[in-house]
Amino acid sequence: MSNVIQLNVPTRAQGAAARRRALISSFAQHRRFGDDVFWLKENAELLNIMECTGQSLDDAALAPHRGFHDQVEKRLGFFPQYYRFLLSICLDLEDLGLPGTKAEALCHWAAREGLADAELSDLQRAEARRLMLRRGIDPLPDDTGLTDRLHRFVDRSETFAMPNKKAAYELTHIVFYLSEYGRRDPGLSAAARISLEYAGILAYLEQNADLLAEICVALRFAGAEPSPIWENWLERETHRFAVSHGPQASAADDYHDYFVCNWLMAASGRDAFVKPAEDDRMAFHRAQPHVGPLREMSECMFRLEDARSDDWEAMRPHVEDALTDIGHDILTEAQASSARFSDFFAGFARTGLRGVAL
Question: Inter-axis angle of helices 37-52 and 16-25, to 10 degrees?
Answer without folding.
Answer: 160
